[in-house]
Amino acid sequence: MSTSSLVNEELQPSPTPAPPRPVFAVAMVGLVFAVVVSLVMVKAVLMLRHFNHDGPVSTTVGVILVVLTLYAWYPAAKALGAGQQRASLLSQDQLVPSRRIAARGREDALIAMGYAAAGLIVALLLIIVLAKDGGVATTFFALHPIRLSFNQVIHAFWINIWVACVSEVLVLILGLVVAIVRMLPGRAGAPLRMIAMVYCDIFRAIPAIVVIMLIVFGLPLTGVRFFQTMPLTWLGIIALTLTYSAYVSEVYRAGLASIHPSQSAAARSLGLSYTQTLRTVLVPQAVRRVIPPLLNDFISLQKDTALLSVAAISEALLVAKLWEAQLFNLSPIALVAAFFIIITIPQARFVDYLIDRDAARRAGK
């Protein structure tokens, strides 16, 4: 570097630091939003009390909801106070503390908006459910139809769970077999690879409800005594197994393909056969990698057991539809939806846990 450039840099004045961004405007937006949401929640609570004839339960729930929406006022007020502190510090030429206060104030304002937005969603849902004197609530959440149908629906729901569990075991086995066949090496495996590929393409293309109707109604019509004497539930299991094995085989195949070729080469160099390499090296690693997507497919399979109602299999949805036709109310069907939610949400959270654990393991935590 030349002497002239050093002199120019020494003589050049340092840039003036920019002041922190203002906080007052965003704080006012957060406070106004919080106040509006509280008013909307009050309206929703009044509708709830009117629908429940000013019952003690609705009053208690309403008070809790209004108090929760008032919490958004607190960070908004803190943001306004941070705006005043920012102005005071700037007047004293204290840029660094003013930047800290301004950043904290903007964060408080955003927190207020976030909590207010959550309260607004809850309030709007209540207003929609209670509109037209509770038309939505009486259509989907009436307690009397739920009480009448509960015992029969929950007993029928065990059929959904049993079908899902048996189908999942069969899908795990058949899907792995199809994935391995699709990855057979050499010209000798080409015909089998083609058959496995055609199977996957066909059953991924046909909707599950069509497969169920073809299997459950079609196989007994073939005249084969084995299919004629088979219970309808087992025919439904076959239909779901054929459909989901095509999807699961692709999950397995992605897991096998994700393993570095050096793993297979090292196993073969140690004298292991292709079958031994699959059994002891490739498949165990692939299964660990594909557990989260496998569980996602099983969640979908659990929900698709409700499609068996089109084949007159007495699972939960079919029983609920019979009650709906008798009571002219959709609450029994909403009860079925609640059962599926209860068993599906823990599975979804377990999938998230496995994904987070795998990410932490890969990061070395």
Order of helices and strands: HHHHHHHHHHHHHHH
CATH superfamily of the largest domain: MetI-like
Class from helix and strand fractions:
mainly alpha
Proportion of β residues?
under 5%
For this structure, the CATH topology of the largest domain is MetI-like fold
Nearest-angstrom radius of gyration? Answer: 31 Å
How many β-strand stretches? 0
What is the terminal-to-terminal distance?
Answer: 46 Å
Shape: flat
Helix content: over 70%
Unreliable parts: none
Helical element count? 15
The main sheet comes to: none
Averaged pLDDT: 85
Task: Describe the overall structure.
This protein is an all-alpha fold and 365 residues long. The chain has two domains: 19-135, no CATH class; 144-363, MetI-like fold (Orthogonal Bundle), CATH 1.10.3720.10. The chain contains 15 helices and no strands. Helix 11 (261-269) runs antiparallel to helix 12. The longest helix is centred in the N-terminal third of the chain and has 46 residues, at 95-140. It is flat and about 85 Å long. The mean pLDDT is 85.
